[in-house]
Design a protein that fits this description.
Number of domains: 1
Subcellular location: Cell membrane; Membrane
Number of strands: 0
Shape: elongated
Structural class: mainly alpha
Subunit structure: NDH-1 is composed of 14 different subunits. Subunits NuoA, H, J, K, L, M, N constitute the membrane sector of the complex.
EC number: 7.1.1.-
InterPro entries: NADH_UbQ_OxRdtase_chain4L/K, NUOK/Mnh_C1-like
Low-confidence stretches: none
Mean pLDDT: 90
CATH architecture: Orthogonal Bundle
Keywords: Cell membrane, Membrane, NAD, Oxidoreductase, Quinone, Translocase, Transmembrane, Transmembrane helix, Transport, Ubiquinone
CATH topology: Helix Hairpins
Strand content: under 5%
Length: 100
């Protein structure tokens, strides 16, 4: 039987992988994927706690986090396309304080 501890361990592992992707990768798309992985890890923890306590508030929070994540992806990809058109690369280390 799966307990809340199993879900929280999975959530923390997913969050650590996402944080590692954000901190260690230089590619803009990999950075966005890491952020999405961290958001999904937090969503998993919210749903696990909501299930444990028997209420729907955690799932409502997850709905709003998913809506914000969708907007973040749209804006992030638009920025990456604009950066690629300007610099011919999406290497985030080449951006110096967003000056072009």
């Amino acid at each position: 039987m799966l307990t809340i501890g199993h879900f929280l361990v999975l959530s923390s592992v997913l969050f650590a992988i996402g944080a590692g992707g954000v901190l260690l990768r230089r590619n803009g798309i990999a950075t966005l994927l890491g952020i999405e992985l961290m958001l999904n890890a937090a969503n998993l923890a919210f749903v696990a706690f909501a299930k444990q306590h028997g209420n729907l508030e955690g799932q409502v929070v997850v709905f709003f986090v998913m809506a914000v994540a969708a907007a973040e992806v749209a804006v992030g990809l638009a920025l990456l396309v604009a950066i690629f058109r300007r610099l011919q690369s999406i290497d985030v280390d080449r951006l110096s304080a967003m000056r072009w």
